[in-house]
Amino acid sequence: MSPEHDAAALLRANTAVLRLAARLFAREVDAPLYGRMLATDIRWGTGHPLVDAPDATRDEAVILEDMAAEFCRLFIGPQPVCPPYASAWHGEVKLGGRPAHAVEALMVRHGVRPVIDSRDAVLEPDHISVELALLAHFREAAAADPTRTGERAAVRELLEQHIRPWSDGFLERVADAARMGPYEGIAVLLWNVLDDSTVPTASRLP
Amino acid sequence: MTRDAASPPTANPDPTGGSRDGWRLSRRDLLRLGAMAAVAVGGVGAIEITDRLLDDRTGDSTPEATRIPSMCQMCTTACGIIGHVANGRLLKITGNPKDPNSQGAVCAKGVAGPSVLYDPFRMLYPLKRVGERGSGRWRRITWEEAYDEIATRLREIRDRGKPEEFAFQQGRNRSSDIVSRFLNAYGTPSHFNHRALCSANRRAAIATTIGESDWDLGDFENSRYVLNFGSNWAEAHQGHIPVAIRMMRAREKGARLVTFETRMSNTAALSDEWFCVKPGTDGLIALAMANVICREGLWDRTWLETWSNYPPDKILEHVAQYTPARAEQESGVPATTIERIAREFAAAAPECTTICNRGSQAHRNGYYNDRAITMLNALVGNMGKRGGWCWHPRSSWDKKAIPEPEPVPDKPTARSIIAEAKDWPLANAFAGKMKVAEIIYLWIREGRQKISALMTYNADTAWSWPEAQLVRGVLQDEKLIPFHVCIDVMYSETSHLADIILPWATYLERWDIDARPPQGLVDYVSLRQPVVPPRGESKDIREIFPELARRIGGGMEAYFPWATTEEYLEEYFRPVPGGFARMRADGVWMDPTKKPHYEPHTKPLTAAELDGAAEDAETGIIYKGADSKTGEPVAIGIRIGGVALRGFLTPSRKVEIYSDFVVEKGKAAGREVHPLPVYEPIPSHQREFPDDHLIMTSYKINVHNAHRTMQSKWLQEISHTNPALLNRATADKLGIGDGDWIEVTSFRPLDPAVPMGDGSELGTLRTRVRLTEGVHPLVIAIAHNAGRSVGGAYATNGKDDAAIPGYGEAADPDLDRLWWRGAISVPQNDILPIYPDPVAGGQAYHDTVVRIRKVG
Questions:
Q1: H or E segment at B301?
Q2: Region (Disordered) spans which residues (chain B) (predicted)?
Q3: Residues A181 and A48: beta-carbon distance below 8 Å
Q4: In chain A, N or C: fewer CB atoms in 10 Å?
Q5: Structure confidence at residue B12 (pLDDT)
Q6: B13 — phi, psi (to 5°)?
Q7: Chain segment B339-392, per-residue pLDDT in tens
Q8: How does B815-844 read in b/e, with b if 16+ C-beta sit within 10 Å?
Q9: How many Cβ atoms are within 10 Å of A149's Cβ, its own excluded?
């Protein structure tokens, strides 16, 4: 595989992980998503990276309800174990604090906005899912046209200023707290994508 | 892949750490798993990013803030507020100067509203329990699912012809119109409130005496002398800010303020004099003052002869037994002081007034205490006068001028044993709703009334009720409460025991028509309006109830014909000049033609009013027409000195120092009720107290209300602890030092007039002691708005993660700033016995006998 092909494949893989993570942190696993995850014939060691092994033998409705309860416990509450908002992780007293304003300002500068489905439990632009969806969007745009420096800068800004300052703690918390479902697996996957050395880092910034 | 793929990732339990050993994937694995992710995520609804901007996206991130008038609901006072909003976000809250009650002032609780609105741990989605009730395991459900399940349950109960089996337990309810509309349309009388935990005894005493109102509104601003019996208006009174600003203006003009209270509250500290009294003796002090005023002829005899239904000489005869010496013996206040203050009070008449509240009325003898205190005002003739003891017939807006939009459902015909609470003669004797809240869950446990569904609304009964552990036991029991829907903003002990949680919009996100007793003596009406849209999927009951009514059906839906709340309020505010639009702009309206409600009893009846009226020659009472229900003639006034006047709205049309009405009510309930104000010693206090036996009292911390503010990070940081306050002299006798740990064991009263009043041991808590001279030597005082075990790390001083089954440590890094983690916070409500005043049912918060013991 040529380096160009390799880079393109990696980009596809990375953005897919970003989008899957954005989906999983925004809303419960539903039957279509569960079906697609099950259908991916892939193993991580001895098990599936996103679907717990024993689950495959249980009634799907029960599994989905258990995963819904797990999503609720982790991200919704009462008193979510892993609040999915940067404001909460930056020690802001209130949700929608300065990190949310900063992401909002970034979106305004670049003329974009997220399309939030009514089923998504997303209230503020500093929700992890919005930040990941933005990252996926700007990465793809930057890759599609290397001359678009604004998108590359947006990728750097998102990573350095908005995501990485809290993503490690958040993902560790998710992986530590998750008892079932895809959350532990996606946390590890996402951590690798965000840590991917192919992504521009602060040291490479002009 | 360098990680052992068969084992889960090793997450570092230290959130500040960075160890992710075993997490690193090889490039090959990353590609492989990324491809899997692409397959999984394709077409399943991931968030997309678009460059199609919405119209309101201007790119201007710092527009000028919009000022939106509304009403506070951090406590019960409902002050006018202004929400300052920019970019759809509430920046801060200030007072609304147009509000005639609060006049632009706002307290610490009020400015902390944004911390509740944007709380990271607020409930924002409908939840349904997945595991056992109380296991803390939930899943998000849609409003459709929630509506369907609730409507199905409620429809079944109603269709069975047992609407009373649907119980509605409210806490602080500022949406009384829509609540009553829903419950009346449904047909349930099982509408439970918390009045007995608040002001029932006081209200009954005032209503007995003047008939027209159950709420006194002293004209403090124009007063020269204020006698305060246990009202903590500087911190926690129902009229907190409106009273406080007027009191302070009076003080600036030289008014004298004297406070009787078992604890040195901030109100006591703001007073000219504070007297530390034994709990439950306020009424005796007032009677001793009455004794002095009558004996020394300091009364307004003419006024009494005109307006009292009991002759001055008979009053003198009655109060002769209550000498200052006797009052000194019981209360601890010197007789000479009682005499001096009685003379000063009378000398300032009519520009003098009493104020009383929890300190005097939240007792086993609370009704009589407040009867005696209220009588003092009649003796000096200050009733209804400028600077005197005043009242207003309306506790909210003028409902004749601004009536509820039709169609309005009739009241239910079904009966509720719990709501009627017939064991307490005056609990439901006057206008209002059920007033013996303490016994609700006891009676449910005893099976006195079957409950098939319970809806709790802004009511954390499982934590804030006396014997809260009993409430929790009932709520946990699915046989007693088969279905429990909780409507609230924050997770609490009560929502923890629900089957469905409906996320309630905060007062900053919803609508109300509202007003409070007018401290300026002119009624007004206010609008509570959303300063920001509801967050998440939270909704107000103004949206929930109409939808439930439509789904329950059976005619209920006919009472909710409006498509939106705005449409309903548009109709409601039509009588206001400028209508709904004006209310939205100003937040409040007061009819400029109305004058302060001074001396309403002296208003002459008009010729039209007298047309067709008949007069009782013996009493002078003027009647017109007949009551549609009883057929009895309706009194409209009384002839005084040859002039037909409106009079008081009591049966005698006079101030009822002597009340036949309450005697008759007592007989009907099988209890003796004294017609006159008396001192009735608290039975369980009539004993020798060993050194280690004390009377436990409770109080509110000034930045907290009874149940909703402990989840506010801002307020909890200010005040988060409730050590036991103990007098130094008492502590010395027991060898207890400042900061020592003690065990407090409470006892039920030994009192046959009180449920379970067998004197048995009730419960124990452990806390630390703060020594002070600011509390009576026989008292141990503990704030009762503390001691949560559920509700977030801030509300529980970091405890809740250990107490919620299945929950790990909350992941808010702001917890690093939880410097008060582990601070003492004890649930006093758990060891407070169910202890209603046998006459009116108000909870005796300050009469519990306890034993203390140094531990550790």
A1: helix B301-307
A2: 1-23
A3: no
A4: C
A5: 32
A6: -65, -20
A7: 999 999 999 999 999 999 999 999 999 999 999 999 999 999 999 999 999 999
A8: beebebeebbbbbbbbbbbbbbbbbbbbbb
A9: 11
Residue B400 backbone class (left: φ over 0; alpha: ψ -120 to 50; beta: rest): alpha
**Which part of chain B is CATH 3.40.50.740?**
127-198+404-510+540-566
Tell me, what's the ipTM?
A: 0.86
Alpha-carbon B97 to chain mean position: 25
Q: Which residues of B touch A169 (CB under 8 A)?
A: 15-16, 811, 813
The DSSP secondary structure of B251-293, one letter per residue, reads: HHTT-EEEEEESB--HHHHTSSEEEE--TT-HHHHHHHHHHHH
Residue B483 identity? F
| Cα–Cα dist B772/B738, whole Å | 9
B254's tokens = 């030289």
* Bridge partners, B389 (sequence order): B383
Tell if the CB–CB gap between A95 and B119 is shorter than 8 Å: yes
pLDDT band with cut points at 50, 70 and 90 for residue B55: low
* Chain A residues within an 8 Å CB radius of B31: 9-10, 13
Could you write out the DSSP letters of every residue in B706-745?
A: SSSSTT-HHHHHH----PEEEEHHHHHHHT--TT-EEEEE
Per-residue pLDDT at B112: 93
The sign one gets for the Cα dihedral B660, B663, B665, B667 is negative
With CA atoms as reference, the chain B residue closest to A135 would be B49
Contact A78 B120 (CB under 8 A): no
The tokens describing A96, both together, are 């929608």
Distance CA A81, CA B139 (A): 14
Residue B29's pLDDT band (cuts 50, 70, 90): confident
CATH number of the B127-198+404-510+540-566 domain: 3.40.50.740
Look-up of token digits 């101030």: B655
Taking an 8 Å cut-off on Cβ atoms, the answer to whether A16 and B8 are in contact is no
| DSSP state, residue B519 | T
Which two three-digit tokens encode residue A11?
Answer: 């980009």
Reduced to 3 states (helix: H, G, I; strand: E, B; else coil), residue B590 is: coil
Q: Which domains does chain A have, with CATH numbers?
A: 3-26+83-197 (1.10.3480.10)
Tell me whether residues B25 and A32 touch, CB distance under 8 A.
Answer: no
- Low-confidence stretches of chain A (pLDDT beneath 70): 1, 45-46, 54-56, 93, 196-206
Bridge-partner residues for A81, per DSSP? none
Mean pLDDT (chain A) is 86
Say yes or no: A122 contacts chain B, CB-CB below 8 A: yes
Supply φ then ψ for residue B127, to 5 degrees.
-125, 145
Name residue B260's beta-bridge partners: B229, B275
SS3 A110: helix
Nearest alpha carbon to residue B230 among B274, B188, B190: B274
Nearest to B384 by CA among B100, B642, B645: B645
Q: Where in chain B is the domain with CATH 2.40.40.20?
A: 685-809+817-855
Residue in chain A nearest B493 by alpha carbon: A78
Show the CA angle centred on residue B42, arms to residues B36 and B45, nearest 5°.
Answer: 130
- Closest C-alpha among A130, A173, A124, A170 to residue A19: A130
B798 touches A79 (CB < 8 A) = no
How far apart are the C-alpha atoms of B609 and B489, rounded to whole Å?
49
Mean pLDDT calculated for residue range B487-513: 96
CA distance B648 to A19: 73
CA-based nearest residue to B460, from B494, B503, B499: B494
| CATH code, residues B685-809+817-855 | 2.40.40.20
CATH class of B211-380: alpha beta
